[in-house]
Design a protein that fits this description.
Blueprint (H helix, E strand, L loop, with lengths): L2 E6 L7 H14 L4 E6 L6 H4 L9 H5 L11 E2 L5 E4 L13 H12 L5 E6 L5 H7 L4 E6 L3 H25 L4 H8 L8 H11 L4 H9 L2 E9 L7 H12 L3 E9 L3 H7 L4 H4 L4 H26 L1
The chain binds adenosine-5'-triphosphate and magnesium ion (MG).
Length: 306
């Protein structure tokens, strides 16, 4: 079965595209089939990181019905088993998608026939980005260790969590009191803890149901551009705080060091994890890719045993 990992962030320029491309390469090197989907519709550049100048087809061909299925616009890269679906030609025309277009893309992504589907998102918390992030139950978010980036990250998590909560309440049988309070008009400013309180007060029988659904979601995160002098326990601390405050699971995947050779690799059109495979940053990225596949394999084993 395909695994979809959306890669998002609260702040721009933290390294989402670099990490998406690197993990794509490393997962493909493990023999998995991987597709990278560039969903940064206004600022698509994933193809450049993979050394592709002008992908011959992309999401626009699918949206405008030139091809029937999204996989038909997946372009091979120089790495065997690694493909890219670019949005280069969408950039000028449709950075702001209509609801039906967004839904068409999300449904098609869920049907892509690859082992791993990595979604490189734009930064921030606009609804399109949040909905792409919520395509799967297991999103990855990236931030750098600066306070501004951490702050925006928390905003991103809260916004994604809130949107998820609202979707659950809208789609399931909660009392009309809860529905009106949470998804009715004039409630834009409602916060996640308030929603849980509203359910507790007006629909106590559904509390367990809500918490069970929320617990199925797993948010993973990576700290990028890490520097030696910083608190080595930062990731673990953030994981603890998030697991205490939300009813979903948070897992810290690892910290990737700042390395000037990342920029050198982009300029020389080489893949950092291949050209500089011996660096601490590449080794950490490999550990993260291994963690992702190991979790997968053990989940598969457990489901077979059960
Ligand atoms: N670990 C790292 N060490 C040094 N430079 C890095 C590292 N990770 C990313 N960079 C650099 O940071 C810049 C931003 O990276 P990238 O484009 O991947 O970020 P992004 O989150 O995708 O940005 P955007 O929000 O604009 O899509 C690039 O110049 C990249 O080379
Ligand atoms: Mg990017």
């Amino acid at each position: 079965m395909s695994k979809i990992y959306p890669i998002g962030s609260g702040k721009g320029g933290v390294g989402k595209s670099f990490i998406a491309a690197s993990l794509g390469v490393l997962l493909a090197k493990q023999g998995k089939t991987v597709v990278l989907v560039d969903l940064d519709l206004g600022g698509s550049n994933l193809h450049t990181l993979l050394g592709i100048k002008n992908p011959k087809s992309g999401i626009d061909s699918f949206l405008y019905k030139k091809v029937k299925r999204l996989e038909h616009v997946a372009v091979p890269t120089s790495i065997p088993d690694l493909f890219i679906i670019s949005s280069l030609h969408c950039s000028m025309e449709i950075p702001n998608l209509f609801y039906v277009q967004k839904q068409k893309i999300i449904n098609a992504i869920r049907e892509l026939p690859f082992d791993y589907i990595l979604l490189d998102l734009g930064s921030g918390t606009n609804f399109n980005t949040l909905d792409f992030f919520l395509t799967s139950k297991e999103g990855i978010f990236i931030f750098t260790p600066e306070p501004t980036s951490i702050e925006n990250s928390f905003r991103f998590i809260k916004a994604a969590y809130l949107r998820r909560l609202k979707q659950i309440i809208k789609r399931h049988a909660f009392t009309s009191m809860v529905k009106n309070a949470v998804v009715g008009p004039n409630n834009e400013a409602i916060k996640s803890p308030d929603i849980i309180d509203i359910v507790l007060e007006h629909d106590p029988d559904r509390e367990k149901f809500l918490k069970d659904i929320l617990s199925e979601f797993k948010f993973r995160f990576i700290i990028n551009q890490f520097r030696k002098n910083l608190d080595a326990k930062l990731g673990d601390k953030i994981e603890t705080v998030c697991n205490r405050h939300f009813y979903s699971n948070f897992e810290f995947l690892g910290s990737i060091n700042y390395d000037e050779r990342v920029c050198d690799a982009v300029i020389s059109k080489k893949l950092f994890v291949l050209k500089y495979s011996y660096t601490t940053s590449s080794i950490e990225l490999k550990k993260i890719a291994d963690k992702i596949t190991k979790t997968e394999e053990s989940a598969l084993l457990t489901s077979r045993i059960l």
